[in-house]
């Protein structure tokens, strides 16, 4: 029985002009995860990731901390949805920068509403795939891993949307549960699935073993 380790990217640059890059904290989180695994003798047989900059930077930090890993298979099927396009589809008026707690909460309330409508086929945000197409990209990556890497250790670096979609598929969750899972995945969090030729099974969800000490207590982030 193999294990698939799904890792959400480190903290990105929420509220900045370019979200798709790690913050200094995000770089530290990724490096620390790699160091944690190296301390425990972890060796990966295969690596998968999305193609976004925050995925590349997270994987680079993990590999640096590990001291090496196989060349990654990069696939757009593991890329995140466009949250701004989703929000614009339900709230066309410009929003203020989410730089206060209330604006932050308002941003994510709109996002959850937009996700629900997108998944139900009510809205079709500009330049975005349908929900079915998005989910199919995640499913294709999982299917390849299941058929190719049963019995092996596989690292997958992606975002909250694809990871919650993967977990939702494995557990058969309703759309509202998948959205709730999405909103709770923390930066650099690890979820584990067992891999067999017939199926993937969830073992752990949204864990931060590399930050589970007093020294790293203030490294826990969500955005």
From TrEMBL:
Keywords: Hydrolase. This is Histidine phosphatase family protein. It comes from the Bacteria. CDD domains: HP_PGM_like. Pfam families: His_Phos_1. Substrate binds at residue 54. GO terms for molecular function: hydrolase activity. PANTHER family: PHOSPHOGLYCERATE MUTASE-RELATED, SERINE_THREONINE-PROTEIN PHOSPHATASE PGAM5, MITOCHONDRIAL. InterPro entries: His_Pase_superF_clade-1 (IPR013078), His_PPase_superfam (IPR029033), Mito_Ser/Thr_phosphatase (IPR051021). Gene3D superfamilies: Phosphoglycerate mutase-like. It comes from Simplicispira suum.
